[in-house]
Amino acid sequence: MQQRVSILDGNTFLVCDRSGDVEPSFDFPTGMFSFDTRFLSTWLLTLDGERLHALSVDDAHSYQTRFFLVPGEPTHYLDAKVSIIRSRSIGGTFTEDLTVLNHSGREMRFQLRLEMGSDFADLFEIKHQRPKKGRTSAQAGENELRLTYRREAFHREAMITSSADAHVDQNGMTWSITVAAHSEWSTCVTATPIIHGARGEDVRAITALGAARGPAVIRDEQEDLVGRAPQLGCDCEPLAGAYRQSLHDLAALRYESITLGVRLLAAGLPWFMTLFGRDSMLTSLQVLPFLPELVPPTILMLAGLQGYRLDDFRDEEPGKILHELRYGETAGFEEQPHSPYYGAADSTPLFVILLDEYERWTGDAALVKQLELPVRAALHWIDTYGDLLGTGYVWYRSRNPETGLENQCWKDSWDAISYADGRLPGFPRATCEIQGYAYDAKRRGARMARLFWNDPEYADRLEREAAALKERFNRDFWIPEKNYYALALDPDGRHVDSLTSNIGHLLWSGIVDESRAALVAEHLLGPRLFSGWGVRTLATDEGRYNPIGYHVGTVWPFDNAFIAWGLSRYGFREEAGRICESMISASRYFDGRLPEAFAGFERHLTDYPVQYPTACSPQAWSAGTPLLLLRVMLGLEPQGEHLIIDPLVPEGMGRVELLDIPGRWGRVDALGRSRTPHDHEHHH
Amino acid sequence: MSQATEEFFASLPARAPAILRAPVTGTLQIDLTTDHRTDHWLVRLSPGRAVVDRARGPADAVWSSSADLFERLAIGTAQSISAVLRNESTFSGNVMLFLVFRQFFPTPPGVRDPRETAREQTGRA
Q1: N or C: which end of chain A has fewer CB within 10 A?
Q2: A74 lies in the same domain as A113
Q3: How many CB atoms lie within 10 A of CB A251?
Q4: What is the pLDDT of residues B57-70, one digit of tens each?
């Protein structure tokens, strides 16, 4: 696979090749995107008709890249008389400084050419290519090229300018330049994506969203966010590196919502640069102990867009929390259901869980009071529309067969939910982890009702319902002959009997009977699920197991972080530590940036974690993973007005020190140190 | 002005207690355009209460739409957020007012309760 370089700021991003070029692509989102529309699909630099080759690429910052280029192929560049520096940044506007350096002792003349074009593809048209329904046009002006797309009132434009005089045609710009001996020439090219709204004005200008920001402002914002997070001091360099990288990636993934004017977290580059209910809430849970201020905008946005009516196309029901919100053409013209789409059965209980956990850390009672009705509506959904079959469980079945999602849990690919023999169950399906979330949501809803809504009767009812759900679940989902919980129930109430990582989420929710927790932990760390680098999504001996199958054998860092949290909750600290250690070791091979997923091969087989071919990176909940692992290793748990600190640092990791952990207690420090092998002998 | 739109606005005060449950207060101006004219509606929203006038501003948010699109929203055959995404309708000002107001738009005609369908299909009806 060709190596790609990306820069991003919020949900505006650019993906190009190693020379900084973009060529039209119909299978992978290369080019410049903003709010789910591709604004540049061609961006190709030549010197005297020749393509350029990169000597080196400096991409240390998420919003800035520098390419050092020479003409021709690698075999004959060694005595190049000319080189080119492309220095670019992104932040609302894409800016590229082109510098031509003449290394020879005489004056030289060059034709520098930048091919430019846009197909204005919606992100979903790249996955499923089809002809555009609107009209694209190009208008050449003085040092300016305007590429526009119109379909009815939908109007997008890429406005490209050059600071130096250029010959502009409909397909790009040409500079005929003369450069003196040992001298240089440069121009600044900018490309601005414009989303036209009412009266043709740029939507971002009229909705009070931030204007384009330069690299200095972006750097300051990122540094500010990173500076507000607790300081980590530790002996383990991979842990320190992963923490640093995570904070920077989380900062880069924030974007301003076109519908709310608040900063939200995008889920992952390049396919998921938008708001996902599940991703944003699980990421929020991971970052809560570190950057609690990132959480309220997400909660408020999800509450504001809570489902309120029945809509089959969008799988919407009253009280349901959204799955995915998109801003592009296919969402607007209802060719895709993301306006927003509600096809997730877990986002609604997760909404209740997140708000409660947020209050436990921050003491922000005002937000819990403000959101009483949306939370009640969410809890009501669990028992009404969520319980499709009236059996006391949350089920899912899409009413949109063309563009809806078959699987409405985190493992949402079509083949993710299977029996051990590989068959796929019918619909509706009730996956186990969603029942765990529903249980936790009821317990947490009860806490909020009692403490903040002055409704002890409702609290009692929710607690009774939670207890009954736990009992029912432990009866109906447990497979006695296999000693673990079924992945799901099929429409006839029978076990979908594969062994999966989903049972780890059950520990996190607390729905597992104490007597069975050890068996669950044993399976999670056993050879069928645990690869040495982490817990696989599906056990190796199941029918559909594939070490590079998206949800059927790969290892997902975020999944492992929640499993570690769950193990820790049931007292399996050593087992949780093994998962923390494996994830942190794996992160070393990705320069501290854990990807969305990696292959499920045995650790001793490959010696390094094998990258999943199309994994998104950076990915918000992977970036959140090292943060949650730190919480688990240091045993951080709010209790009343205090933070409990109960560290158990895995062997060999040495000192782990987290300073200024924010919360209702002000700021406190946590210090942990692993026992040495010698201590180990001593204590046992 | 179509009858469906007139009836829709007339129904708001009575429906407000059940629908306006969020702690959001403010005035939304709605501009409905046909080829020849623009009709203005002013809706003052607060928890449990909606007051409707045929007038224009001052308002905390303005929402513009063709009269035709609004009628389809008022009977449930169109959806408000996709209409904004394709720029068929536009808004400016406090977005929360729009998110709250959209809850007055009804479910599409003929939609069945998904529980009935699922239970029928699995023989549990």
Answers
A1: C
A2: yes
A3: 24
A4: 899 999 999 999 99
At A482, which CATH number? 1.50.10.10
Q: How many CB atoms lie within 10 A of CB A224?
A: 10
Nearest-neighbour CA in chain B from A670: distance (Å):
39
Low-confidence ranges of chain A (pLDDT < 50): 1, 206-210, 258-260, 680-684
User: Quick one: pLDDT at residue B21?
Assistant: 86
Partner-chain contact B122 A261, CB within 8 Å: no
Q: In the numeric block, which tokens belong to residue A576?
A: 């949780």
In a domain, A224, yes or no: no
B60 Cα to chain A: minimum distance (Å): 13
Contacts of residue A429, defined as CB under 8 A and 6 or more positions apart, other chains included, come to: A395, A396, A397, A407, A417, A488, A489, A490, A491, A496
pLDDT digits (tens, 9 = 90+) for A61-84: 888 899 999 998 766 556 688 999
What's the gap in Å between the CA of A339 and the closest CA on chain B? Answer: 5
Q: What is the CATH number of the domain that holds A167?
A: 2.70.98.40
Find the residue in A nearest to B88 (Cα).
A153
> Is A210 within the bounds of a domain?
no
- Region for residue A597 given its phi and psi (left: phi exceeds 0; alpha: psi -120 to 50; beta: otherwise): beta
Q: Are A270 and A617 in contact (CB under 8 A)?
A: no
**For A151, which residue in chain B has the nearest alpha carbon?**
B86
Per the structure, the complete domain to which residue A118 belongs is given by: 5-200
Q: Which CATH number fits domain B3-121: 3.40.50.1000, 3.40.50.720, 3.30.1050.10, 3.40.190.10?
A: 3.30.1050.10
First CA to last CA distance, chain B = 43
Residue A76, pLDDT score: 56
Q: Do B86 and A333 touch (CB under 8 A)?
A: yes
Q: Are residues A308 and A186 in the same domain?
A: no
Do A241 and A195 share a structural domain?
A: no
**pTM of the prediction?**
0.94
Helix residue ranges per DSSP H, A384-500? 432-451, 456-476
